[in-house]
Write a structure and sequence with these properties.
- It is a single chain.
- By secondary structure, the chain is an alpha+beta fold.
- The protein has twelve helices and 14 strands.
- The chain is globular, with a radius of gyration of 19 Å.
Length: 401
Amino acid sequence: MTVQGACDPRFGLVAEEFERNLSDRGEVGASVCVIVDGETVVDLWGGEAAPGLPWLHDTIGHVWSCTKGATALCAHLLADRGELDLDAPVVRYWPEYGAHGKDGTLVRHLLAHQAGLPALREPLPGGAFYDWKLMADRLAGEEPFWEPGTRHGYHALTFGFLVGEVVRRVSGRSLGTFFREEVAEPLGLDFWLGLPEEQEGRVAPTIPAEPAAQPPRFYATAFADPASIPALLLGNDGGYLMTPGESDTRAAHAAESGAVGAITNARGLAGMYRPLSLGGDGLVGEEQVAVMSPTQSASSVDAVLLVPTRFSLGFMKAVDNRHLPAADSEGALLTETAFGHAGMGGSVGFCDPPARLAFAYTMNRQGTGLAVNPRGQALVDAVYRSLGHRRAGGGLWYRPS
């Protein structure tokens, strides 16, 4: 399949791995972008956006949970401006949220997946994810699954409504509007939280992963125990995840779903992380970048995903799960200083400020795991090799002294 774009010779390894993904690893259509010291050194795309249609320079696609990085960034913009206190109770900004003992929940608990609301118990109506007020009201009135702040579990679908409602209450603008006006437009990004209808023709539809012979423990638990959190997360979302093709409908693309709904490509996703890779670069202050980076919650058994995970305030941190059974072995083999977010099926965007690196990979054919798929990891590895980094025990990357 034809690969197009540009690649600095210093990062030829990235181009080689991108081509190998398409020729040998089952890639259908994809894009990769690498920015170092604020300059784009890799901007490649290739394969098919849809059967018979090439992936073009301006093809965009659904990046799933990479969306969470955009939503978290909106909260940090408000915190950087002194309008949002991350250590304040959520009820300061969203009074209704205090029901059922949630009055002690802090904003930082929402960002670090510690809020105890990864799912809802009572059945949601069809299309619930497209009704912001409905979702915010239901979450405000829900009893937490654990005492907020005492443990963490991935808020795969609720994160966007929880953090996004705080952004809406503080800013007076919807999450998608705030992101567009404060991030996408100032940075010139082709990145959408709520895609305009006139952009629909550029979207590469998602190709779901083939069913795995041995599914990750998260999925196995969901299918075996209907009362479990994984089962509620997958099965009680108004039909968003389990209805074939629903996430590619016009309604889904138009919704400002701050956990899983963003539409962009690698150029747009890496471009969002570019200022953060440079210490903020006018988007936020250097001190706020320092707040974004450190790990805030970590566990050998995430209460939802049932594998080790690590999060900063709104962003995924590096995690090495290669010691687990193959179905659960995907992680995010980055450096300890990197932060960003992967999306379901394997897309990923992140920055690494000490390396002055911003990276993104997006694709249409999903992998079967829970984090960065092997195609994306191969590209990440090639970038770090090109920068002269090394791997500790074959796992996480580090910069040698």
